Amino acid sequence: MxxxxxxxxxxxxxxxxxxxxxxGRLEGGFVKRPNGESIFAEQRAIMEEMGPLYRGxxxxxxxxxxxxxxxxxxxxxxxxxxxxxxxxRVGLREALRTLFRIPVQAVVVNGRLIARGCWxxxxxxxxxxxxxxxxxx
Length: 137
Prior knowledge:
- This protein has one domain (6-136): 3-Layer(aba) Sandwich (Glutaredoxin).
- It is 47% helix and 14% strand.
- The protein has five helices and four strands.
């Protein structure tokens, strides 16, 4: 796997939702409503659903892929996207479409938005990464 390949998994972080910092965090299971229901249950479910994709990619490619998980409000996301647009020669139209269509949950591979609002199967992301490797060879 070409070390230059990039995967950015965009999802909300409980640290961003609660303002928790390095000294501790308040996750969905900790903060409850008066009725006992978790405040961030939906966001927590999205985080947990991302796990198989993250682990599958990490297991398949190890350090051979740059795999980042970022909150959509993290300013580093814009910096990484611009870096990837340049690195992978993403056209202006596609770059703008990616920038303006990033939702709370997304997958960006080599500067290109490949999934919005759902986590794709590991195989779908792997086939895109493998196709890039074939193109480089």
